[in-house]
Amino acid sequence: MVHSSCPSSCLVNKPAHLKGFNLDIPDFSRKPPSLPPSSLEPKAEDSLNSPSAHPLSTECPALDTALVQHLYYCSRLLLKLGTFGPLRCQEAWALERLLREARVLEVVCELSRRWEIPATSAQEGKGPVGSGLVTALKLLPCSTLPTLVCPPAYSVADGLLHLLTVVQFSASRPGFLTFWDQCTEGLSPFICPVKQVLLTFCNQYGARLSLRQPGLAEAVCVKFLEDMLGQKLPRRPQPGPGEQLTVFQFWSYVETLDSPSMEAYVTETAEEVLLVQNLNSDDQAVVLKALRLAPEGRLRRDGLRALSSLLVHGNNKVMAAVSTQLRSLSLGPAFRERALLCFLNQLEDEDVQTRVAGCLALGCIKAPEGIEPLVYLCQTDTEVVREAARQSLQQCGEEGQSAHRRLEESLDALPRIFGPGSMASTAF
């Protein structure tokens, strides 16, 4: 399973791996300084014959397409920098993703830089693309792309079609390489349409998963894709080519998983999808049964968010069952850490009800780590969120109750400048 979207680094003032980095963001809202008219006149070196006038390219159209997609993704992540909340979880998450993207861009730049290296023999490659890329891969450090594995029956040029599918997880994560190979059969190994990934997944796992529930394979694959892409997929067909998935996104995502194989991942994710569906059921009996049978290991981000939602939308019996379950499971250190990160991340969600649910869930697990952000919400958020935050503070032991008393005292000490009495005194 993939880690929570709020990284553990958001529990401190600054992620350890980012210390020393200058995170100041330039003000792009200012207009650039005006240039003198002479600087706008075309010069000889600016002609179309100049190499700088040609579009930037790796000389491989498929790799160019993949690279452009990663740059667009980086631009979306950059928009999250400077978006502050109680813990800056969204910003810390975006920074971690940007560091991962920087690793991808380093690989692409190195491959592009060594693209034109000639082959030294006929067996080393066929054509400039194959020879240059294969030679470049041999020169890359092992920590970047450790080994280029080509079956004996393949020439190195044929192995080019599979070179980026054999990455760090190929030896210890059976099934993932085979799946990507099937998705890109007859296509470029660098990029694959999301529709093709969904079709391949359903063809491979649809029969087995449909025995559990019709349509389960599609639901599992959609979660798989959304976690890799870092965004929700449209539920209705959209005009145009649609979303694309790059081998680098696939590679980076698989490296974050705990699942030892593709088969194990599909099984675990199917269990999580079914659990979330049952927790979101309108049938109280189904919800209560799901709560009783939910093991600690199956409650990941989506399951935890579904649990917290029941604290807002469930009836009294369901809410009591959820509170009991969260208190019991939070005694386990591994579960408590996952739950804490998930619920803290919810405090920065755009949806009001999700923030309310995060507040109530933090109270259930009695998390002292949540006291400071809860106090922040009591001072800044809407009334319904403030009330939930105050309620949770009172459940966080003596420390939380003390913080609640100080908060109430500070609020009572504020002058009532908009009260009826003060309005009369300031009329003139």
Can you put this structure into words, describing what you see?
- Its main location: cytoplasm.
- Residues 32-53 are annotated as: Disordered.
- This is Rho family-interacting cell polarization regulator 1.
- Belongs to the RIPOR family.
- This protein has 428 residues and is an all-alpha fold.
- The protein has a domain at 280-411.
- It has 18 helices and two strands.
- The chain has helices spanning 61-78, 89-113, 127-139, 156-159, 176-183, 194-210, 216-229, 247-255, 262-279, 284-293, 301-313, 316-329, 333-346, 352-364, 371-380, 383-393, 397-413, 420-425; strands at residues 191-193, 244-246.
- A two-stranded antiparallel sheet has the order 1-2.
- Helix 6 runs antiparallel to helix 7 (216-229) and helix 10 packs parallel to helix 12.
- The protein starts with 60 loop residues before the first helix and ends with a helix.
- 32% of the residues are buried.
- Mean pLDDT is 73; it is low at 1-5, 8-48, 116-170 and 416-428.
